[in-house]
Amino acid sequence: MKGANHSIVSEFVLLGLSSSWEIQLLLFCLSSLFYVSSMMGNLLIVVTVTTDSYLHTPMYFLLANLSVIDLIFCSIAAPKMICDLFRKKKVISFGGCVAQIFFSHAVGGTEMVLLIAMAFDRYVAICKPLHYMTIMSPRVCISILVLSWTIGLIHSSTQLVFVVALPFCGPNVLDSFYCDIPRLIKLACTDTYKLEFMVTANSGFISLGAFLLLILSYIFLLVTLQKHSLGDSSKALSTLSAHMTVVVLFFGPLIFFYMWPSPSTHMDKFLAIFDAVLTPFLNPVIYTFRNREMKMAMRRVFGKLKDYRKK
Questions:
Q1: SS3 at position 24
Q2: How far apart are alpha carbons 121 and 58 in whole angstroms?
Q3: Residue (of 196, 197, 198, 200) closest to 184 by Cα position
Q4: In 3D, which of 148, 124, 146, 147 has the Cα closest to residue 136?
Q5: pLDDT at 1
Q6: Can you tell me whether residue 79 is helix, strand or coil?
Q7: pLDDT tens-digit readout, 132-183
Q8: Which residues are bridge partners to 174 per DSSP?
Q9: CA-CA distance, 279 to 76, in Å (whole number)?
Q10: Is the whole-model pTM more than 0.85?
Q11: CA–CA dist 261, 281 (Å, integer)
Q12: 202, 14 in Cβ contact below 8 A?
């Protein structure tokens, strides 16, 4: 069996997170809370950056696009997971499974490139401040955004081409609450050793390499800040620490999923929930509470909203 035409599986059964009613109720409440908060928080950042002229800078342009990505990312698996919590039989169609994989990897790849671009933006701002607006011009920012989405779509499509062609003839049970490549290819009715290696190389090594590159770049910037007595060093330090926190939160689960040889099912599910629901919620929290300009801009937005409602 070498082609998708031999597949007889039309849907996959998801085992979900837990069979305990109490745990399911707790997960439903927490997941719903974090999902709604994530949507509102990221939407607030997008609206604030768009409407406040003081934030029309390259750094906040990239931040707003990161929030757009988080809005999409948290809507890929979380809504179905929340709806499935109290369902006896949790199923997803073959097409739905493929769609989850495609969008999660496309958005994840895009965010990976965008985080690297944000690190480059901070490098230019700290090391070449006089040329900042020339290097990070609007044209460059748009090009970065287009490049990010292009790489994300290519990364996702490359893996999906091989997965769609796999034959699935049973079993069709996934011990998870969403579809992802590592678990899905184990259900294929063929030898998938080479494909598993390709997935590890494509997602695992790339994630690890990008993570190490970002951490080293931020360490370099922190050392540069310490060597130079800059007037706004405390502001730059706060921004860098926020960026590093987001990088660790984003890449940590990815490296575990694709680099760990035989992950624990419980740890795998915990990190999956963290990646699907908590990380998109924490990103706006980190960037808002550790950024004075963003907090002031949000106050101005709320002030304008109050004035408009009074009229």
A1: helix
A2: 8
A3: 196
A4: 124
A5: 39
A6: helix
A7: 999 999 999 999 999 999 999 998 998 888 888 888 887 888 888 888 888 8
A8: 14
A9: 13
A10: yes
A11: 29
A12: no
